[in-house]
Amino acid sequence: MNVPANLKYTKDHEWIRIEGEIAYVGITDYAQSELGDIVFVEVETVGETLAAGEVFGSVEAVKTVSDLMMPVAGEIIEFNEKLDDSPELVNDDPYGEGWMVKLTVTDSDAELLSADEYTALIE
Question: What are the CA-CA distances from residue 14 to residues 72, 76, 79 (Å)?
Answer without folding.
Answer: 11, 15, 15
